[in-house]
Amino acid sequence: MPRLPIVHYEAASTLAVVVSSNEPLLFLSEDQRVIAASASFCRAFEVDPSTVTGRPLGEIGDGEWDMPRLASLLRATASGSARIEAYEIDLVRPSRKTRNLVVNARTLDDGDMDRIRLLLAITDVTDARAETRLKDDLIRDKAILLQEVQHRVANSLQIIASVLMQSARRVQSVEARGHLHNAHHRVMSIAALQRQLSTSSGGRVELRAYFTQLCQSLGASMISDPNRLSIAVKVDDSVVEPDFSVSLGLIVTELVINALKHAFPDDRIGTIAIDYRSSGEDWTLSITDDGIGMPMGTDAPKAGLGTGIVEALVRNLNGDIRLNDAGPGTAVTISHREGSGLPTDVSRAA
């Protein structure tokens, strides 16, 4: 049997690859007539294989492939002035679902240097795009629902705080009134966190804005004369996860309440300073006042609920608590260092 000329052999080989391909492929002449179509193309787009070969691309099926923009790009590809890469088209067919397609095309050397051939690969991404849109919709709906829940929780906490304040005004017991005031302040701090979370992108919390809002809330509820007492916030650009911000917020709340209750008796003038700095996994939070300082020895008050809350929170954060004389006043420093030790006790009652 005589050997086929190399040009015929290469053309036959190309045709065989196209026809047997598992991917939708079209082998086109320079004038965009179909030389061969893969069986997968015919199955995917419901085209009778016997009606494809030799026909112009725009006449395949019911004419749904007659797309001027695609035809123009194919001509530019054949001339070498352009290349179709991941070009997206919609295949619109009467009484059938529109399909979203991604098209790639390139010239193909089939052994004959005097003619140009085009290989057109088509990928149906309809289902993938639908799944992506559904996922995006679900994420968006979840975010909206979460924000709504956060707003409702914050509003509910505000109502609870108001009820606690009303109850505090009615009770006769000074001790009971103090407990209700403390509960009110703690509820207000959580409400401030909820408001911050509702405006945070992706649930992450910007600490500077959160601590500022938190201290404004505490000041509004506990400082009757802003000219006498103030709370200053100095925080770096740290943005943290919600769980971490909750713990830090509660620590700040307890220590600020503690300072407001104990550090400035007899209408003393002063400031409470909040400072937070982080570097990688390491961080430091300090709450400093310029009040009367820490009572020592027998004058030191018994540890209260606030102290227990702070110690538990710091222990959960694998942090370390240190109390220092700020001369005047008191500095409470809470820090976390990778591989560092366990927390110590806080000795001033809250």
UniProtKB/TrEMBL annotation:
Whether Ligase counts among this entry's keywords is no
In what residue span(s) does the Histidine kinase/HSP90-like ATPase domain sit? 243-340
Species lineage: Bacteria, Pseudomonadati, Pseudomonadota, Alphaproteobacteria, Hyphomicrobiales
According to the UniProt entry, the coiled-coil residues are: none
Keywords of the record:
ATP-binding, Kinase, Nucleotide-binding, Phosphoprotein, Transferase
Record EC number: 2.7.13.3
A molecular function annotated in GO for this UniProt entry is:
protein histidine kinase activity
Query: Does Cell inner membrane appear among the keywords?
Result: no
Pfam families linked to this entry? HATPase_c, HisKA_2, PAS_4
Q: What class of enzyme is it?
A: transferase
Under catalytic activity, the entry for this protein gives:
ATP + protein L-histidine = ADP + protein N-phospho-L-histidine
Provide the leader sequence positions.
Answer: none
The protein's name in its UniProt record: histidine kinase
Name the source's superkingdom.
Bacteria
